Amino acid sequence: MSQPKYIHALDIPEPAREDLPEDTRAYFDKCQEKLGMVPNVLRAYSFDDAKLKAFSAMYNDLMLGDSGLSKLEREMIAVAVSSRNHCFYCLTAHGAAVRSLSGDPALGELLVMNYRAAELSDRQRAMLDFAVKLTDQPDAITEEDRQALRDAGFSDRDIWDIAAVAAFFNMTNRMAAAIDMMPNPEYHSQAR
Q1: Quick one: residue 11, left, alpha or beta (phi over 0 = left, psi -120 to 50 = alpha)?
Q2: How far is CA 113 from the centre of its chain?
């Protein structure tokens, strides 16, 4: 059995390419050139250019912008949070990114299943413990949790970034679940 063939389950038509604003077409062309596809999450938001731009700006800042966290660490947070939320889209897309960035095809799968089963550094484990606790019990986060991150070598700015990435993926996971967003089929075979 394979995944459904739609981008998402709502009857909101994707605009024709020629109906997209010029800068959005250029962004999609850049995605196609760099990734070999336009991620379905972008296509899902494309019916409303303001929502697409807001989503893309936040994603690009959090996942690609300057940070004391590596791109791999940010992708690891995305996968650990998405695992707790059972988000098929993000587990597939960001699991592929973890495989690619780490050069370890098993790491992406271990993080999808249970990050605690993976061989991680103390720093990575502390980071993912915090992100998962923030996902499962946001009201239980205390200074002790932040101090555990400092003890693992994270600055307060890094703690902000860990929290921001975890919070963003909690939002996107819920959106993907609400509309049954499907990952691009290309993700399944990447970095294997």
Answers
A1: beta
A2: 16
The string of pLDDT tens digits covering residues 59-81 is 999 999 999 999 999 999 999 99
Nearby residues of 12 by Cβ (< 8 Å), 6 or more positions away? 47
The full set of domain ranges for the chain reads: 20-64, 71-189
- The contacts of residue 116 (CB under 8 Å, 6+ apart) are 125
Verdict on whether the full-model pTM lies above 0.85: yes
CATH class given for the domain over 71-189: mainly alpha
Scanning the chain, the segments in alpha helix (DSSP H) are 22-35, 40-45, 49-64, 71-85, 88-102, 105-114, 122-136, 143-151, 156-179
Measured CA to CA, the distance from residue 109 to residue 106 in angstroms comes to 5
The CATH architecture one would assign to domain 20-64 is Up-down Bundle (1.20)
- Whether the CA torsion 40, 42, 43, 45 is positive or negative: it is positive
- The CA distance from 48 to 17, in Å, is 13
